[in-house]
Amino acid sequence: MNVLLLYQMKVENQFHDLKSDGFTILKKIIPKSAINNLKENIYQSTFSNKMKSPDKILFVANLFKHNQSIAKYLLNTKLTNLIKLCLGEHHKISFVSSIINEPGNSRGKWHADWPFNRHNAGHIDSPYPDAIMHITTVWMLSEFSHENGGTLILPKSHKNSFNPTSYSKDPILLNLDNEMNVTGDPGDVLVFDSRLWHATASNLTNDPRISVIIRFAPWWLNLDVLKPGSRQRKFLLNSTKLPENVIPLFTKSEFNNLPDKIKPLMIQYLNM
Predict the structure, then answer these.
(1) 195 to each of 61, 93, 155, how far by Cα in Å?
(2) Percentage of residues of the chain with pLDDT beyond 90
(3) Sheet containing 209-218, strands listed edge to edge, beginning at the edge strand earlier in sequence
(4) What are the Cα distances from residue 211, in Å, to 8, 38, 83, 97, 173?
(5) Residues 121, 244 contacting (CB under 8 angstroms)
(6) In the predicted model, is pLDDT for residue 40 greater than 80?
(7) Strand order in the sheet with 152-153
(8) pLDDT tens digits for 163-187?
(9) Could you tell me the residue range of the domain that residue 207 belongs to?
(10) 192 forms bridges with which residues in the sheet?
(11) How many structural domains is the chain composed of?
């Protein structure tokens, strides 16, 4: 059996896992030799540009405005081929965020990611169809473990036609029977259907847990509600009285620094 066929089979198996369990893990997307510099750079950028977030969580929206050091790894074919299987040939990047769990952060509540979180103004109402409409990827720059708060997930929960935000203004904080911490090495990437129930886990170690969250959308999914000052954002905020994520827009020079193959995926966030 040739190498190309083996590779194709592996990608298809990961796609099967994602459809069946709601997630898969891509190994060694970032080379080990690059991790320490990336980790330090992204920690410093996040600390310097941190936005409002829960206690002991550092967060930056549209990290690429400040730090593009991880951008070239988005072109890894293990990732791009899987995203194409999930969302089709034509897709775009909806979010790029850095998240750092400092030691002692609190456990978060169960939820699904945008656009399936009904606490956001721009959400899709449940019941949800059984179709992949948005993908979340978690780039591990630290080891992910039970001890340091590897993301909590509930396997197969993406098959539910609802999630905790569908029926409660105060999503559940309970331990669930089948929950698990995602574990992985620095350089690995967790890929999951954004409908999957997940939660922030507590970091019980003395070191920060550093990650970058990059989400992908199909070409047809409207992202205007995420853009500051857009008509759709103003309309939905006013009509729903709910909050919404906001993606700071690129300046022309920031955008031009992106890898050429990434630019078409983020053109919607260029401040024209």
Answers:
(1) 20, 17, 11
(2) 88
(3) 23-26, 189-193, 135-140, 209-218, 91-101, 57-61
(4) 28, 10, 19, 9, 22
(5) yes
(6) yes
(7) 180-181, 152-153, 198-199
(8) 888 766 555 667 888 999 999 999 9
(9) 3-269
(10) 23, 136
(11) 1
- Length of the chain counted residue by residue: 272
Question: What is the band of 3 on the pLDDT scale with cuts at 50, 70, 90?
Answer: low
CATH number, domain at 76? 2.60.120.620
Instruction: Count Cβ atoms below 10 Å from residue 27 Cβ, excluding itself.
Output: 10
Contacts of 90 (CB under 8 A, 6+ apart): 218, 219
Integer angstrom CA distances of residue 188 from 32, 139, 183 = 10, 6, 9
Widest distance between CA atoms in the chain: 58
What is the SS3 string spanning the chain?
CCHHHHHHHHHHHHHHHHHHHCEEEECCCCCHHHHHHHHHHHHHHHHHHCCCCCCCEEEEECHHHCCCCCHHHHHCHHHHHHHHHHHCCCEEEEEEEEEEECCCCCCCCCECCCCCCCCCCCCCCCCCCCCCCCEEEEEECCCECCCCCCCEECCCHHHCCCCHHHCCCCCCCCCCCCCEECCECCCCEEEEECCCCEECCCCCCCCCEEEEEEEEEECCCCCHHHCCCCHHHHHHHHHHCCCCCCCCCECHHHHHCCCCCCHHHHHHHECC
